[in-house]
């Protein structure tokens, strides 16, 4: 059995080197400098637009059409949602819990064009 020694850098030495010459900074610290924009904050992780849309449709019980990835269309109104799925209340069938990744797109039923 071989003993393994943990090699840990001395942080005081690294700080001294970085203070003396910024060119000696590790590659990890300088790697993404080209992609950063100084003075400009990063965009927010979530704009809450999705939550606003779902809440509006839930409160008004807007009839919606959900088109799934396989082309199947489901009709009903959104009763509940979370980060990963929607609960659709249907008049012509049982209520369904649908994963968002299975939804290709959705739209209001009143926006349908009858041919």
Any key phrases for this structure?
elongated, SH3 type barrels, 5-stranded antiparallel beta sheet, 5 strands, 115 residues, alpha+beta
Task: Describe this structure as you would to a colleague.
The protein has 115 residues and is α+β, with helices and mostly antiparallel strands. It has a domain at 49-111: SH3 type barrels (Roll). Helices cover 23% and strands 25% of the residues. The protein is built from 3 helices and 5 strands. It has helices at 11-20, 27-30, 49-60, and strands at 64-68, 73-81, 85-89, 96-99, 103-108. It has a 5-stranded antiparallel beta sheet with strand order 4-3-2-1-5.
Beta content comes to 25-35%
Q: Cα distance, first to last residue?
A: 79 Å
Task: Please give the count of helices.
Answer: 3
How many runs of DSSP E, i.e. beta strands? 5
Q: Helix-strand pattern, N to C? A: HHHEEEEE
CATH-derived topology of the domain at 49-111? SH3 type barrels
Structural class: alpha+beta
Cα shape: elongated
**At the first level of CATH, what is the class of the domain at 49-111?**
Mainly Beta
Layout: helices, strands, pairs:
Blueprint: H1 11-20, H2 27-30, H3 49-60, E1 64-68, E2 73-81, E3 85-89, E4 96-99, E5 103-108
Antiparallel strand pairs: 1-2, 1-5, 2-3, 3-4
């Amino acid at each position: 059995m071989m003993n393994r020694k943990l090699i840990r850098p001395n942080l005081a030495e690294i700080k001294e080197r970085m203070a003396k010459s910024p060119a000696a900074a590790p590659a990890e610290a300088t790697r993404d400098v080209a992609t950063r924009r100084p003075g400009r904050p990063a965009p927010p992780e979530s704009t809450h637009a999705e939550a606003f849309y779902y809440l509006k449709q839930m409160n008004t019980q807007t009839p919606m059409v959900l088109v799934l990835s396989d082309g199947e269309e489901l009709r009903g109104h959104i009763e509940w949602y979370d980060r990963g799925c929607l609960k659709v209340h249907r008049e012509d069938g049982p209520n369904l819990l649908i994963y968002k990744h299975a939804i290709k797109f959705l739209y209001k039923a009143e926006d349908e064009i009858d041919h």
